């Protein structure tokens, strides 16, 4: 008797997936997820970017900073980030060439393009709620669009 094992999917998740993961449908995500060192860098910067905003009465900068720290700490605990190594650096040249060929400017999205370069170097599909950030890269990497959830701002700090 042959027992068929279910096919498990592997994939690299973009920073926005890490941030929104608790509200995403797990069926849209790979079974085995990985993050990059670039995502960890973006998450590390996040708490320092929080500023008070008088225009948003419900915005609590302390709660937002705590929420961002929570996401960072969970990422650090759960994942061993894939580095931006020599192969990713080489892939970055191809990624930039593809973006330029699509009529876009690579300097505007350096972190996204570095994440895409790691996906190319590691031969992993990339999961994101922002597929337009990776427009022009379809020949180099599989981009899996994940449905962006509607997250009320007051629940983001939970």
UniProtKB/TrEMBL annotation:
<keyword id="KW-0460">Magnesium</keyword>
<comment type="similarity">
    <text>Belongs to the PINc/VapC protein family.</text>
</comment>
<keyword id="KW-0540">Nuclease</keyword>
<dbReference type="InterPro" id="IPR002716">
    <property type="entry name" value="PIN_dom"/>
</dbReference>
<dbReference type="GO" id="GO:0004518">
    <property type="term" value="F:nuclease activity"/>
</dbReference>
<feature type="domain" description="PIN">
    <location>
        <begin position="18"/>
        <end position="135"/>
    </location>
</feature>
<dbReference type="InterPro" id="IPR050556">
    <property type="entry name" value="Type_II_TA_system_RNase"/>
</dbReference>
<keyword id="KW-0378">Hydrolase</keyword>
<dbReference type="InterPro" id="IPR029060">
    <property type="entry name" value="PIN-like_dom_sf"/>
</dbReference>
<protein>
    <recommendedName>
        <fullName>PIN domain-containing protein</fullName>
    </recommendedName>
</protein>
<keyword id="KW-1277">Toxin-antitoxin system</keyword>
<dbReference type="GO" id="GO:0046872">
    <property type="term" value="F:metal ion binding"/>
</dbReference>
<dbReference type="Pfam" id="PF01850">
    <property type="entry name" value="PIN"/>
</dbReference>
<keyword id="KW-0479">Metal-binding</keyword>
<dbReference type="GO" id="GO:0016787">
    <property type="term" value="F:hydrolase activity"/>
</dbReference>
